[in-house]
Amino acid sequence: MSADKPVLPEGFRYLPDYLDRAAQEALVEDIRAVVAEAPLYVPTMPRTGKPMSVRMTNCGPLGWVTDKERGYRYQATHPATGKPWPQMPERLAALWRDLADYPEPPEACLINFYDDTAKMGMHQDSDEADFSAPVLSISLGDSCLFRVGGTDRKDKAVSLKLASGDIVLLSGKSRLAYHGVTRTYPGTSTLLKNGGRINLTLRRVRSPPQ
Ligand code: SIN
Ligand code: FE2
């Protein structure tokens, strides 16, 4: 193994080119329909109210939201429209069934849209009740530089270029790994007419029924 080959955290799964072009296009159509009902909005950080650089929306019974007043949480309605999130597209539920190795369906799909300058700081996905379910993450559109480390913020992180159609899973020991997006690479994909990057993360929020 070459010395500079990145060592991915245990349990982290990297599935490059998992979705072919037709599957990517079909997902973009699904997401367009979701966004038409549940528009992208600018989330703000807890306490400081600082706007994030990505725009967000969700589909599924629950959606992840954040704002200055109430911080990170899941809720059943869109913060701007007050309406329930649109249904989870069947194509996303099917990817979860194929890859998540978890008996229950996903409850939330967070949709992040990155313009050419958007990024996301290192964080853990820890607002869910059941960490035995993975977070399944789909990249569409422009490539990005993704970083993933360990469960301590100070752990060494490795960088991975994620391209359109790639899927990664934070599962097992890497479920609570710190991760973030350093930058996108504008102009690296023709999937989205106006450029940019879409990231979809499927999550199980509550513990399964006993
Ligand atoms: C996230 O951690 O919510 C986004 C990850 C990504 O954009 O690839
Ligand atoms: Fe995340």
Automatic annotation (TrEMBL):
An MF annotation (GO) of this entry: ferrous iron binding
Pfam family for this entry, one: 2OG-FeII_Oxy_2
E.C. numbers: 1.14.11.33
Domain Fe2OG dioxygenase: 105-206
Protein name: Alkylated DNA repair protein (DNA oxidative demethylase)
Record keywords, A-Z: Dioxygenase, Iron, Metal-binding, Methyltransferase, Oxidoreductase, Transferase
InterPro entries (alphabetical): Alkb, AlkB-like, AlkB-like_sf, Oxoglu/Fe-dep_dioxygenase_dom
Binding locations of Fe cation: H123, D125, H179
Residues the entry annotates as binding 2-oxoglutarate: N112, F113, Y114, R197, I198, N199, L200, T201, L202, R203
Binding note for cofactor: Binds 1 Fe(2+) ion per subunit.
BP-aspect Gene Ontology terms: methylation; oxidative RNA demethylation
Gene3D superfamilies listed in its UniProt record: Alpha-ketoglutarate-dependent dioxygenase AlkB-like (2.60.120.590)
GO annotations of cellular component type: cytoplasm
Residues that coordinate or bind substrate: W64, Y72, R73, Y74, D127, R153
Top enzyme category: oxidoreductase
Names of required cofactors: Fe(2+)
Organism expressing this protein natively: Martelella radicis
Entry keyword DNA-binding: no
